[in-house]
Design a protein that fits this description.
Length: about 575
């Protein structure tokens, strides 16, 4: 029999109706309520969100399923072969559209944007063969008059199943990826969507497939198993309804308020058809007007509340995003800091190696300079002795610089071990004064030491002597007239001002060039020197005060500088815990 939708058969054999009679009541309950629910729910969502792509896709999906159910209902209820062939031929296409529409809905819901054009072209390419073969034998081969059903072409059936399987795999692969990447709030929505769409597609696919398979195998008479599978759409709609209530996916609050106001308006307005008394009509009119006014205000109030909550939720999301960004920045800075520490250690090691290599030549130069000056290689003229002395002085500066480099290298690398013992700082300070007295006298400067009896302190003797010596030596270098004074005092919370509790204070004061306030914070930094300092002593290394700071802190002390301004001298102060 040719499949041209208008067969020569008028009706099926009466035996078919007897097959249907036992399931006829179930057929009405399995199809008609679901058709109505799907269509109305799709229209409802489209009306409240007609400008949203997601609402349009959901309407297309629900309408496609309702249309498929209508066509399927015709294949069951009609005994006209023309109606059955027409309805049956279209179900193949509608089934594929339901699965493709489900993928489209899931994608837009998860990504909050439309699918790319190339995927739309791909979907069109997949559907086009089904559209072309609808009125041909490639879709339906013939009509079975005895059992009143169409004979399907197996190739079309398999192609339809191929589209359904590919769509299903695409949906769940995409959802799994999105669920892993989403935040906790949106992840719950995606999980509910995945559960609902899975049950819907699974029941729809299995019911249709098993119905055909079991009927073909002879286990079922007809396709009565198919009507049970349509219940799956209720699961999907129910899950989507829960999402609406739980997460506000379609603004259920405003929808409910609008529905309530409209229902009250219709209910009150319908009373005009039954009211005969003019007074009742007037009261009903007033009631209708009040309901309209209050309903309008209520809807606006709910809209404002929803906007405020959305703004708050958006602000929370922004805060969380900023927190995540700060965490990423913190992680990056932590890695960068580790690398910088590695580079700093490598630099310190390099400086240490270079300083060690530089120690040998100055020592040789110093030895031969002294031999030449003492006349071991013959008598020298005054001019020659002056040149040798200049060489000796320059070499001494080089030796001091190498010593400072080595000290910094050892201190920064942690290779210096502090040997703490109880000492009288007065004795250490006296040694410094004795060693530098001649240097101060050569510059016509006084060098005084205000020695007092102070308690012993636990320090590394050699290193503290080096620190105090550096401070006194610097004071002599940068003082042109006047002198330098070294003093020891006890600093307590109840007495003279101190930084921390009871401490021993060592102060080196001078009448030198002074220090500007803006230069004080960086004075103890590595290679840092004041502008006037460079003018008076161009050969300084900028490491002396940095070494003093590290030695003092290594002895659990603190060092700082005070000055009343340029030309008014300076006071370098060390405090050590008693």
């Amino acid at each position: 029999m040719e499949n041209n939708f208008i067969t020569s058969l008028g009706t099926c054999m009466p035996s078919t109706l007897s097959v249907l009679s036992g399931s006829l009541s179930l057929l009405y309950y399995s199809h008609i309520p679901i058709i109505i629910i799907s269509f109305l729910f799709g229209m409802f969502v489209l009306m409240i969100g007609r400008d949203k792509l997601l609402s349009k896709i959901f309407f297309f999906l629900s309408f496609s399923f309702a249309l498929w159910s209508i066509l399927d209902l015709f294949t069951w209820l009609s005994s006209d072969s023309r109606v059955i062939m027409f309805a049956w031929s279209l179900t193949t296409l509608i089934e594929a559209l339901v699965f493709l529409g489900s993928f489209y809905f899931v994608y837009v819901f998860a990504e909050k944007r439309d699918i790319s054009f190339k995927y739309k072209i791909l979907a069109a390419i997949l559907v086009t063969p089904l559209i072309i073969i609808i009125p041909t034998k490639l879709n339906l081969l013939a009509f079975n008059y005895d059992d009143c059903y169409s004979l399907e072409n197996i190739h079309a059936t398999y192609y339809k199943y191929f589209i359904e399987i590919v769509s299903s795999l695409g949906i769940f692969s995409f959802l799994i990826i999105k669920i892993r990447k989403s935040d906790a709030f949106f992840k719950k929505q995606l999980i509910l969507l995945a559960a609902g769409i899975f049950l819907f597609l699974l029941s729809f696919f299995v019911a249709v497939f098993l119905s055909s398979y079991l009927a073909d195998m002879g286990y079922l008479r007809g396709y009565s198993f198919e009507m049970y599978g349509l219940v799956g759409v209720l699961v999907f709609l129910g899950m989507l309804g829960y999402m609406i209530v739980k997460f506000g996916a379609f603004n259920i609050k405003i929808i409910g308020v609008q529905a309530l106001v409209v229902s009250l308006f219709i209910l009150i307005a319908s009373q005009f058809a039954f009211i005969q008394n003019p007074i009742n009509r007037a009261l009903t009119s007033i009631t209708l007007m009040l309901v309209t006014i209050f309903g309008f205000n209520l809807i606006n109030s709910v809209k404002k509340e929803i906007k405020q909550k959305e703004a708050l939720a958006h602000a929370n999301n922004e805060i969380n995003e900023r927190k995540n960004q700060l965490q990423r920045i913190s992680d990056y800075l932590s890695v960068a800091n580790s690398k910088l520490k590695e580079l700093d250690n490598a630099k310190t090691e390099f400086v240490s190696i270079v300083a060690h290599q530089l120690q040998s030549p100055p020592t040789t130069i110093k030895g031969y300079s002294m031999l030449l000056s003492e006349g071991n290689y013959g008598e020298l003229t005054l001019e020659q002795k002056d040149i040798i002395q200049k060489i000796f002085n320059a070499n001494e500066q080089q030796v001091a610089f190498v010593d400072d480099l080595l000290s910094v290298s050892r201190l920064e690398s942690g290779r210096v071990i502090f040997n703490f013992e109880k000492y009288q700082m007065g004795e250490i300070c006296q040694e410094v004064i004795d060693n530098l007295f001649v240097k101060a006298k050569d510059k016509s400067l006084y060098l005084e030491f205000n020695k007092q009896m102070v308690p012993e302190v636990s320090v590394d003797r050699a290193k503290m002597r080096e620190a105090v010596s550096n401070l006194v030596d610097n004071a002599i270098k940068y003082t042109k007239r006047g002198g330098v004074k070294l003093s020891l005092t006890i600093c307590s919370l109840g007495g003279e001002r101190c930084i921390r509790g009871n401490h021993l204070r060592i102060m080196v004061s001078d009448t030198g060039i002074g220090i500007p306030i803006d230069e004080m914070p960086r004075l103890f930094s590595k290679f840092s020197r004041g502008k006037d300092v460079k003018r008076l002593n161009a050969n300084g290394t900028g490491l002396g005060l940095y070494v003093v700071k590290m030695i003092t802190e290594g002895n659990r002390g603190k060092v700082w500088v005070e000055s009343d301004g340029e030309g008014k001298g300076s006071r370098f102060i060390i405090e050590l815990p008693i």
